[in-house]
Design goal:
Layout: H1 27-32, H2 36-46, H3 49-60, H4 68-75, H5 85-92
C-alpha cells in the first residue's frame, strides 16, 4: 500500500477568523466593580487560538454539547465544578 504524504495547508487568504478572546462588559457593571477585568485577564490569556479551535472542534466536529466551555473553565480552575441539579434542588426545599 502506498504511503500518503500529509501536508498542512496555510490559510493564505485569511479565510478562518482569528480567535482573540476578550470580555464584553456593560459599562455600569464595570463601573460598579473594576476588579472584573482582573477576573477575565487570565481567562482571555489562556484562550489562545489553538485552545479555542479545539473547543470549537469538540462541539462542531465531535458533536459534544456546548458545555465543553464550562468544562474547560472548570478544568483550568477558573470556575468551580457544577453540582448536579438534583442535589441543588434538594437543598432549596
Amino acid at each position: 500500500m502506498p504511503q500518503l504524504g500529509l501536508r498542512v495547508l496555510a490559510d493564505d487568504k485569511s479565510h478562518h477568523p482569528k480567535y482573540n478572546a476578550s470580555a464584553t462588559v456593560r459599562k455600569e457593571a464595570f463601573d460598579r466593580n473594576r476588579d472584573i477585568a482582573k477576573v477575565f485577564e487570565p481567562i482571555a490569556a489562556a484562550l489562545d487560538e489553538l485552545t479555542v479551535a479545539e473547543l470549537n472542534k469538540k462541539v462542531s466536529a465531535d458533536g459534544l454539547a456546548p458545555r465543553v466551555a464550562r468544562q474547560w473553565l472548570t478544568d483550568k480552575g477558573f470556575i468551580g465544578a457544577a453540582r448536579d441539579r438534583g442535589s441543588r434542588q434538594r437543598r432549596q426545599q
